[in-house]
């Protein structure tokens, strides 16, 4: 049954590619607007094992853009909803969940050496930097999502090295902080679109978002993970 399920994928990447994905374990940190679509696409592509890390539960404000958010999942942990969704698509996929927010204080809960790939889809700079450094120290490939908030044009996303990014304020901060730490390369997905600014009374307003922007960022990240795992060079 699983062979038939992935028959169209096999036509693209071959049986060897499918086997590499089946044997891969991917950690996705942040199961939100970006990370949820990363996991969805990787699961449907045949990745055999996941670690899902997020401390949040599904809220009403997630319904406009997050693939796991429905009226039925409100109040449930995003990681657990995502696990159920994966198993409804691929019952044999191994999924471990961590209902915590990744920070330097929680780093010891994770053995990065067990992962074949790490996806950084978290929001805070402190968490992103420590996550990237931990993956680098373990010699594990990592891809990082830059800012997707307050954007309207999904066609503006690009895959690049962090040091070749521009416009994105989050990428600017990350360039500076990673350079301090001696990191000379990091694959990221970022947008050159200028963030939309709205008048607000809040000092730190919550960024706006819409269904078709973080989802595209997540799918681009998933494509990079798949291509790297199988060693795909024909693009």
Features:
single chain, 235 residues, alpha/beta, Rossmann fold, 7-stranded mixed β-sheet, 7 helices, 36% helix
Strand percentage: 5-15%
- Please, what is the average pLDDT? 95
CATH superfamily: NAD(P)-binding Rossmann-like Domain
Q: Bin the helical content.
A: 25-40%
Overall number of strands: 7
Number of helices: 7
Rg, nearest Å: 17 Å
CATH-derived architecture: 3-Layer(aba) Sandwich
* H and E order: HHEHEHEEHEEHEH
Q: Kindly identify the CATH topology.
A: Rossmann fold
Structural class: alpha/beta
The CATH C-level class name: Alpha Beta
The backbone outline, from C-alpha atoms, is globular
Gap between N and C termini, in Å? 30 Å
Biggest β-sheet description: 7 strands, mixed
Structure description:
- With 235 residues, this protein is α/β, with parallel strands linked by helices.
- The chain has one domain: NAD(P)-binding Rossmann-like Domain (Rossmann fold, 3-Layer(aba) Sandwich).
- Helix content is 36%, strand content 14%.
- It has 7 helices and 7 strands, in the order ααβαβαββαββαβα.
- It has helices at residues 2-5, 7-22, 35-45, 78-89, 125-137, 169-180, 214-230; strands at 25-29, 49-53, 94-98, 117-120, 142-145, 157-161, 187-191.
- The chain has a 7-stranded mixed sheet, with helices on both faces.
- Strand 2 (49-53), helix 4 (78-89) and strand 3 (94-98) form a beta-alpha-beta unit.
- The longest helix has 17 residues, at 214-230.
- It is globular and about 55 Å long.
- The chain starts with a helix and ends in a 5-residue tail after the last helix.
- 43% of the residues are buried.
- The model has no long low-confidence stretch (mean pLDDT 95).
């Amino acid at each position: 049954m699983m062979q038939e399920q992935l028959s169209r994928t096999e036509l693209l990447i071959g049986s060897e590619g499918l086997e590499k994905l089946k044997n891969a374990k991917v950690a996705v940190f942040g199961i939100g607007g970006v990370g949820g679509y990363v996991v969805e696409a990787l699961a449907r592509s045949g990745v055999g094992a996941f670690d899902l890390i997020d401390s949040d539960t599904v809220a009403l404000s997630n319904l406009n853009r997050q693939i796991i958010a429905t009226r039925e999942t409100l109040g449930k942990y995003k990681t657990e909803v995502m696990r159920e969704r994966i198993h409804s698509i691929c019952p044999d996929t191994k999924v471990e969940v961590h209902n915590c927010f990744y920070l330097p204080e929680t780093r010891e809960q994770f053995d990065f050496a067990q992962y074949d790939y790490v996806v950084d889809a978290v929001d805070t700079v402190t968490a992103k930097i420590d996550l990237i450094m931990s993956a680098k120290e373990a010699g594990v490939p990592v891809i990082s999502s830059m800012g997707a908030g307050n954007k309207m044009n999904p066609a503006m996303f690009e895959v690049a090295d962090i040091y070749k990014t521009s416009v994105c304020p989050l990428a600017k901060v990350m360039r500076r902080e990673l350079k301090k730490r001696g990191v000379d390369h990091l694959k990221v997905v970022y947008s050159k679109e200028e963030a939309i600014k709205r008048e607000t009374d809040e000092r730190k307003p919550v960024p706006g978002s819409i269904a078709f922007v973080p989802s595209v960022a997540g799918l681009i990240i998933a494509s990079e993970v798949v291509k790297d795992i199988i060693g795909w060079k024909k693009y």
